[in-house]
Design brief:
Length: 112
């Protein structure tokens, strides 16, 4: 049985912001604290929309360093694991696996 996602915590900066250095997933927390925003999503329909969008992403190149602009932490009901999703304009990592970003996911993030 697949675990049920119940909360998504989001940290993000403007997706189009340019920075002098590449921001990795760990560094995004600090950038978002200074110049970004944080959200907690608990609405079931919104959570499901994010999950379905993530499931629809195509595999990306095997090795690539993302310039991260948003980070999602997905928490599950009665399940200890937390999924970490790091999002750049072009690529996404889900627990370290690389996927190609798409317009639907960008629109969801920008719509927050």
């Amino acid at each position: 049985k697949e675990p049920i996602p119940v909360v998504i915590k989001v940290k993000k900066v403007d997706l189009s912001i340019l920075t002098p250095i590449r921001i990795d997933c760990e560094e995004l927390d600090e950038w978002a604290r200074i110049d970004g925003s944080s959200y907690t999503i608990e609405n079931k329909d919104t959570i499901n929309l994010f999950i379905e969008t993530l499931k629809g992403l195509e595999k990306g190149p095997p090795k690539y360093s993302l310039d991260v602009r948003a980070k999602l932490l997905i928490f599950y009901q009665n399940h200890p694991n937390v999924d970490t999703v790091c999002i750049s304009r072009l690529l996404v990592t889900i627990n370290g696996e690389i996927y190609r970003n798409n317009k639907k996911l960008i629109d969801l993030i920008e719509g927050l």
